[in-house]
Amino acid sequence: MITILTATYNRYSTLPRLLKSLLEQSSKEFEWVVIDDGSSDETQNFIEELKKKDLGFTLTAVRQSNAGKHAAINSGVAAAKTNWIFIVDSDDALVSDAVETINTSIATATDKTVGLCYRKAYFSGELLGNELSTVEQSFVSTPTEAGKLFKGDLAYIFRTDVMSAFPFPIFKNEKFVPELYIWNKLGDAGDIIFFTRKIIYLCDYLEDGYSRNFSRHLRANPKGFFTYYWSQFLREKTVYYKLKNLIRSVQCLLYMLLGRPR
Fold this sequence. Notes:
This protein is α/β, with parallel strands linked by helices. It has two domains: 2-204, Spore Coat Polysaccharide Biosynthesis Protein SpsA, Chain A (Alpha-Beta Complex), CATH 3.90.550; 212-258, no CATH class. 40% of the residues lie in helices and 23% in strands. It has ten helices and nine strands. It has helices at 15-23, 43-51, 69-79, 98-107, 143-150, 160-165, 179-188, 214-220, 222-235, 239-258; strands at residues 2-8, 30-37, 58-64, 84-87, 93-94, 113-122, 138-141, 154-159, 191-203. β1, α1 (15-23) and β2 (30-37) form a beta-alpha-beta unit. α9 (222-235) packs antiparallel against α10 (239-258). The longest helix is centred in the last third of the chain and has 20 residues, at 239-258. It is globular, with a radius of gyration of 18 Å.
């Protein structure tokens, strides 16, 4: 049994696609926790209508003032009622056996296992990142090192108790902290098993999404990004990656000291 956690903000147009993929799951051994991060579109009405229906799984919905995805994830972790959390964005979807695949892996996880990680693909079916056909089908690694190998976004599932122990930091007047900052902390707490071939998650990158608007988010959230980049500077082992993260850290410091250009 897992919690699918969706933090959403003004994604009324894409939520039905995600819902459809949840309804089509081969296993309904999950709950869906939706955190509406202060949407101003029809998201709340959509959720209220869903509450009236028999979906075949439990729906828990929480509405909060707009505080950013990281704060919504914190709220979702607090609302989760299962032992594992799978974060699925509101503009994405799952393949039909995603929940079944995850629950099968959870059944064989050890006490040291704090996370599972699978592949993402575009809605077209094209794999995100590198194909790793010559690498074993699963292995234990850290989010930082695995990111260098896969070179593409990944679908993480984490133990609820460990996520509760490492909430995202909240900075006044900022609304974003890179997820890898917390994923690395979770990896420090135990093993994360990475599955090299199995795709469970479908996505695209919208024009107003975080991935396509990196520079604007960096300027608007320098404390959050500095926290991440400085942590990465300390974590990395090679001069190249240390220098890369040091430069970004200095950039964030300048935004903090000189103000945040929009």
